# Entry
Amino acid sequence: METTVRIYDFLLVTALLGAAWKTLFAREAFTSTVLFVAFGLLMAIVWTRLGAIDVALAEACIGAGLTGALLIDAIRHFQEDSNLNSKESRLTFHMAAGVLSLGLFSILSTSLLNLQEPNKDVYTRVIDHMDVSGSSHPVTSVLLNFRAFDTWLELGVLLLASFAAISIHQLYDDGRGPDLMRPTPTAIKSLTRVMLPFLVIIGGFLLWLGSHSPGGAFQAGSLIGAAGILIQITNPDRRILFSSLGFRILLSLGFLAFLAVAFLTNLLQGNFLEFPQSQAGTFILILELAATASIALTLNVMFACSHPWTRGGR
Amino acid sequence: MSVLEFTTAFILILGVIFFAAGSIGLLRFKGAHSRLHALSKADNLGLGLISLGCLLATPNTATGFKIFFIWILALSASAVTCFIIAEWEMSHGDDSPNL
Amino acid sequence: MKTIYLTLTTIMMITVLIGGYRIARGPSPVDRMLAAQFLTTTAVAIFLILAEALDLPELRNVSLVMVSLSTITTVAFVKIYCPRKGKKDECP
# Structure
């Protein structure tokens, strides 16, 4: 059985390296996109092999479907941009990219060579405090209780990214988005009608799972975001109204919920983001609901706002 | 091994054989339409058999329902996607060589 | 029993490699897209077997998520993708 596992690992690594190589050196952007989707699926298998089920779930959510749709849409929008498609080789650009990649490679390899034993003390401390953390899954407790500050800042980064995307959209959109798509086949319309409620239900299921099993806000948000992207692809005339108050509130709901909880806990406990031990589960649920809404809407914004940001594109 | 384990192993091995057959078809058939036939039929049959094998091996009913649901979703997704891919190939396909 | 599961997973990994080869090689974009679509199905099967082999019921949720999201890339391809060259260049 040991040799079977080694053969399995060897095949997995070969597939990963082959997919990565061909993604970088394919002739067309579309080949790279499809290989990148395959790479995401292989990475989900790798995360499972390493024992990180939460990361495998997140990779399956984002890499299996959303990345493909986003990149295909981006390829279409950038296809007519002459600046990006020029065949001339910009030597300094390529050399700078090569030097930076070499630097990153040396940093990663030296840290790999100096790798120490993982800190088991942290793991035992998390397990010891699980009963006051509000959830029975260690990853959720760490993400949403012990290190809630980090999750808050992650949501802030997502909010900044969507601000950037919306700004680019408002400046450079020429309204040609729906014209670039073909009419929807009937089969897709019926599939969408069936898949949309299931996507929302499975997203809610993953959100509920987060309290005792791998899952949580990010995975649930990406599923609901995928449902929204499916609507955007099949009904391109339905545009997001970026100026509506409801949209703006929902987009920033994750960040604002953390802000409100921080001030509330400061009033109640004297420390920011220190949950009262009896209510920790409720706080985690509220924060996860808000984060799900924000993440889903951020993904939809990213899909809706993929435009070239050079004026001379068309 | 008990009868149940033996049946599970047999059904799983049969499912993987169908998957392998679909992949060999993907490798050696010429033209996108033939490869689509190989994949959408053999791969889905393989997935159905593997789901059946995992159904037989699960301890409780709720997990069985989840596996059945996964299979139904995979079947409906494959049915629609192989149709729309074939329709795209008919109307927008280029005259690539049949490699 | 676990040996059988692991052997089957290794054979499925060979299937994944063949699918990857078809993505890289396939002369038309349809070849690449259908290989990617059914690579997702293969990954679902791998995760179902792994859930039994490693006794981790959470992996079935990974299968569920992958099967729900498998159609989005294909739908995007059919609606949006426009080949750069070719005689039937009917991009909107």
